[in-house]
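Just wondering, does anyone understand these tokens?
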Amino acid sequence: MAASLDLVFSALADPTRRAILALLLEDDMAVTDVAAPFDMSLAAISKHLGVLAEAGLISRDRRGRVTWCQLEPDGLREASVWMQGFGQMEGIDLDAFERFLERELGTSAAVPEGPAAEG
């Protein structure tokens, strides 16, 4: 268990890999589509994808000449269970947090509105 947790947390430690996981929340993507928003080479993105795959957070499937990436939500299950043991996965009331910030800062907290903010 410890070795697989190490792989998951190591993979999640990098902001690029977390951003890739966020992209894959929407749908499966071709490697070139995953790479498009990042200012780095396709080879660098492929290395990040390899780390995510080794940690069990994504899978890759070759369809013809295109490699597709898919999020593997069960890959986070072990880490989630481990974190729950520390009480770190309790729900957060974001509305209450926003009210707290407004009280503490004395101004309206800068919270984006609209469909993107509802996610």
Remarks:
- Residues 42-54 form the longest helix (13 residues).
- Residues 108-119 have pLDDT under 50 and may be disordered.
- Strands lie at 29-30, 58-63, 66-71.
- The first strand starts at residue 29 and ends at 30.
